[in-house]
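Re: S-adenosylmethionine structure - here you go.
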Amino acid sequence: MDHSEAASERKYYIGEHSLTAKRIEPGLHIVSTPIGNLQDITIRALETLAACDLIACEDTRVTGVLLQRYGIRTQMMTYHEHNAHRQLPKILEALGAGRAVALVSDAGTPLISDPGFRLVGDVVEHGHKVVPIPGASAMLSGLVGAGLPSDTILFAGFLPNKTHGRKKRLEELRDIPATLVFYESPHRVGASLVDMTEILGKRKAAVARELTKRFETFQRGTLAELSDFYSGDRPKGEIVILVSPPEEQELTEVDADELLLEALKEMPVSAAAKKVSKATGVDRKTIYTRAMELKNAGTAEEPESD
Ligand code: SAM
């Protein structure tokens, strides 16, 4: 590979093949980059990175590895959540001068749990063009390999780190009729799956790990099974968790009645609801409501007092 060309020649390389990028229009180009496998980049993305005047990236070392791989010598500047306010005027100035600026993140598609959403808003407000250059994203690779319904999905990004906030967020998502897609840190996978099992109940799910990389794996099962699987194991690498939509619960609720009537003989309503929710996988709120109905209808025997 000959690295002697000036940046102005706008070359890029695929293997030993030298290619000349066409000129691109001024504006902010939102360029997706690989999520692990450096070959997962489109020709259009390479052309854009080679032909633009400036690349705004989260970390010049990370993006530098990609540029190096493809022999691209475009100038980089950092743009991340901590310096966004300082860098915005510079990007707007470049766009105002008729330049083409590319926005990339460390991996995948910018703005997807990554910086850029405010920048795009500001750029649009200033009347500049925004050009998406599609490509890899972990949420999509996870979805297509999970084996779960893909007709309606809700991308929920990262859940809160602490159990209380996480459970609250899961309660908000519980009744949404869509496959839920989460990003998660490997340290919290086990804890998140425990909370998902409790709040979302009996559902199919998948844990997609290290997508596009050497140790790519999909672990599939019910939330309870996955929760068990990860209880003693802290996985390494990057993780997407996918959970199937809530199912019609009619049948399970009928089954739950029997268990509830038994449990209500021995314990108060809330404890009975907790026990039966755990046993059936039906969410606790539904079971609690049903327990109250049974109690108020006089169908349930009261627990014996000492
Ligand atoms: N913008 C990226 C995208 O389009 O996928 C996501 C960036 S977000 C800061 C990083 C999170 O994405 C990781 O913590 C992980 O949950 C998920 N992720 C990124 N790469 C992944 C991979 N190769 N395999 C599994 N999950 C990945």
